[in-house]
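Q: What structure does this chain adopt?
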Amino acid sequence: MTGSPSAPAAPAAPALDVSFRQVALVVHDLDAAVRQWSATLGIGPWTAYTLAPPRLRDCVYRGERVDFSLRHALAWSGDVQFELVQPLSGPSIFADHLDRHGAGLQHVGAYVDDHAAAVDAFLRRGFTPLQSARGFGAEGDGAFAYFAPPEADVVVELISAPRVRIEPDFVYPRSGGEPA
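A:
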């Protein structure tokens, strides 16, 4: 038999119109993780927030209305945003991950301009909704939704960033390099 290997089959649906820019890890202790990532990898500054009801609204976990809360910290390294997530209360995919796998890589995220349209596109492509909420911005906007893609062992987040963020719990390291 001669010739080159056959090309992969074309995907069944057009490529997703999203650009993944976030890598997120679940941690047991957000404060310790922020210090470790800053000291070990030089990533930072980290801006940390607590997201909880009543600010966090319309919380859904695996199809059920629930209340959940979390602390998370965000930092950029080049064009990649890193997120560290510590679950606090209620059922969540973050607590599930810690229970099943321990701390570590949990999802990749994409910022989208039209959150509702992006969610609809994922659902039409057979993505399974895992968890979602909205309202974490200072003006009550901002939304996130997590999905399991068909035939892929990864969690994907669609993010609608708020126009104005709430005041952070802390920034580490503070400007000038001093610790928080």
